[in-house]
Amino acid sequence: MVTVLLIVIYLVFIGLGLPDALLGSAWSIMKFDIGAATEMAGYISLTVSFCTVVSSLFASRLLHRFGTGKVALFSILSTTIALLWCQKRGEICVNQQERQKP
Known about the structure:
mainly alpha; single chain
């Protein structure tokens, strides 16, 4: 049982922390795909930091109301949906750019 709990904790940790860490390493390629300037990474980081502070302020209320499992599940599902949407959106942008090439 302890091993299963450690695996779940590890997956939650990776699921919640990975997307934030990927911005710095992926931005050099991402900025060309979305047509953004390098400075936009700073705005994205600022937004992520602000949202982290806001979520931290509401964390205790949410945990007491819904419990740790539901909050973690909702957070991971939200992250997964956002990543899948961004991936799908990126495919659409790339397909449109390929069609416009002479």
